Amino acid sequence: xxxxxxxxxxxxxxxxxxxxxxxxxxxxxxxxxxxxxxxxxxxxxxxxxxxxxxxxxxxxxxxxxxxxxxxxxxxxxxxxxxxxxxxxxxxxxxxxxxxxxxxxxxxxxxxxxxxxxxxxxxxxxxxxxxxxxxxxxxxxxxxxxxxxxxxxxxxxxxxxxxxxxxxxxxxxxxxxxxxxxxxxxxxxxxxxxxxxxxxxxxxxxxxxxxxxxxxxxxxxxxxxxxxxxxxxxxxxxxxxxxxxxxxxxxxxxxxxxxxxxxxxxxxxxxxxxxxxxxxxxxxxxxxxxxxxxxxxxxxxxxxxxxxxxxxxxxxxxxxxxxxxxxxxxxxxxxxxxxxxxxxxxxxxxxxxxxxxxxxxxxxxxxxxxxxxxxxxxxxxxxxxxxxxxxxxxxxxxxxxxxxxxxxxxxxxxxxxxxxxxxxxxxxxxxxxxxxxxxxxxxxxxxxxxxxxxxxxxxxxxxxxxxxxxxxxxxxxxxxxxxxxxxxxxxxxxxxxxxxxxxxxxxxxxxxxxxxxxxxxxxxxxxxxxxxxx
Length: 533
Description:
This protein is of the alpha/beta class. Helices cover 21% and strands 23% of the residues. It has 11 helices and 26 strands. Strands 1, 4, 17, 18, 19, 21, 22, 23, 24 and 26 form a 10-stranded antiparallel sheet that branches. Strands 5-8-11-12-13-14-15-16 form an 8-stranded parallel barrel, surrounded by 4 helices. A 4-stranded mixed sheet has the order 2-3-20-25, with no helix packed on it. Helix 4 (192-203) links the parallel strand 11 (170-175) and strand 12 (210-212). Helix 10 packs parallel to helix 11 (408-419).
């Protein structure tokens, strides 16, 4: 038994990668299912991700308190009373529920769990951030937001964000209010609130590392429009030059395109990122960002006003049609990036099982297979950073927001953080039902880390390795359950409220069985891959 390495400095990419060494994965039908062969020493490098590739969102409404996605009622419970959210009451009855501000300073378990995923980025934004007023004084919190705003962010709440960021090594990405209260009489964006937030952050001895002007402006109601967006971007560029020149300007933070049409109430032209960015002068981004949701949750089924069903189901959760939507969206937005910000890094600043808080099974192991598969696809597809939505709010969170204990996807995220380095390798052509991804092994020059996902619910598969490896297999007795196993042993926090040791099983070279609906991480420290030296 060997213990997985702690996260640390990134693996250095070799200056010479010999493509002639590449041997693609081979697969063949077998009585026991698919057989995939991988030679870790010969996998070529294809891209590199940011050291903070796996990041997360802390929604602004979590920080300020307010109405966020309500938990699904348990059998026999009445639905929660309807309350308004950032989009009014247009969604399903009971979609929202009032929540108190998140305690980012004194929640020790939350800090411990978040720190274990670091270094990361923490995005403090979301639809609610588009109308938040920053109260830049130390007086009592305002009882009501000023006209033109919907919520109030106090100094003490932002200080909690900063303190959390420092403690868990999560650089801050945020966005600003663009609602009527943040505009001058002629409709121009007034950056004064943003300027004060920058100043207060500096006074706390910290910085905002990246900003987006607004959250999901392409589906804003009323419509943002290209002329207004371009004008506001000029103001934001000038603000950054004066207040924080090193801060990255990220955008446009679009969503709902690539053929999915999750927001049929928004006219197609207005929802187009290309249209949004067509104003003059053309917005310029240091980082190109977009949001990915393959569907909306049951809470937002009311969105499908044109009669189309834009939700999904557990039966579809492991299908290529569902999982492949990530590739479809990445290809689409990579094309938009190439035209709007050629060569800019790509950040997916929101993604989860579905929009609107996730479906009930997003908190179960069933969705963990999607979580890992999606990270693998995005890394292979050229995405630099992926922000999961959320760290600890609603059903799609990595951490339960009542018990503050890890959900199944947290454990998968932890193994990713500890094993998967920044250099992405080509593991060869993917086979139906079995997905294999490869990166350089973190902290081990020449080493390789593999992920093998058996997406079949019934059939085993085999992975043939040319090298011995250290195996970490995640499984669940009940796919739609909230318990997860590592190498057939339960995963829980220890009695002293710490993370348990994540111990590997030594696996010799040869055939490795992949049980149905499992995720297997493999560390191959002695691979000797020249792309990983």
